[in-house]
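User: Hey, my collaborator sent me this sequence without any context and asked if I could get a structure. I don't really work with proteins. Can you help?
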Amino acid sequence: MPLWTDLSQHITDATGAPFQARRQHSVSGGCINSAYVVEDGRQRYFVKTNTLDKAAMFAAEAAGLQAILASRTLRAPHPICHGVADGNSYLVLEFIEMENGSGRSAAFLGEQLAAMHRVTTSRYGWDIDNTIGATSQINTWREDWIHFYGEHRLRFQLDLAARNGYPLQAKGEKLINRLPDFFTSYQPHPALLHGDLWGGNWGEDPQGKPVIFDPALYYGDREADLAMTELFGGFPPPFYAAYAAAYPLDAGYATRKDLYNLYHILNHFNLFGGGYGGQAARLIDRLLAEL
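Assistant: No problem. I've predicted the 3D structure and written it out in structure-token form, which is a compact way to encode the shape of the chain:
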């Protein structure tokens, strides 16, 4: 069944009439998916498509967006439906007119992200695995954060890097064995995390309010979200000031942010290769030297 026909089986308007796609045009969907805006003259939707094997990725993304919306903090696109059709998997989202995130909404983003991070549970992980970019992200529940981060984040990526031709296990294993030393006076609460919070995954709606999207959601140390905001150029200063005022950070964050960004540097090597492998090696050396 063609994709646009399949959508009419899942989407109706306020009167119960099925959605009939009349216009669609391609838009930027990042480096992983194809993306479209689809409309029938009354309604518009944002649609991502990929190969059939990515259906579980879209299902997990929809669940992550639902969890963010359920927190009643930051705005995120409502997932409408997801499935497979016409030899593709797809995810249909609420269409939100957006501009790139800027300073005018950054303070509210920081304040509301702090509120989202106060949504907690008793363990680390999530009910389902998802993806970080195109890489699998394991979220099996664990009682202990150090074990969760060491096994499901660092070791997973180190093993993948070895299979991709850049063995870092020896020095990576030293770092994993020393993880408790980063947490001698700090015990993170399992916070609801976006999981992939870089500058390209938030924007502003027409009212100037922040919107976050493309989550890699799980419950973990809130510092991991904050660390990633600093990885690719940083967010506007009002974001950090508002977050700190609402939910002050532990002093050890200055060191642990490198530990958390190591996960993303390793993942970038596994996705894109190039100089990210050397960057990861240098980061491990620096972390070990600090200990």
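In plain terms: The chain has a mean pLDDT of 91. You can pass these tokens on to your collaborator as they are.
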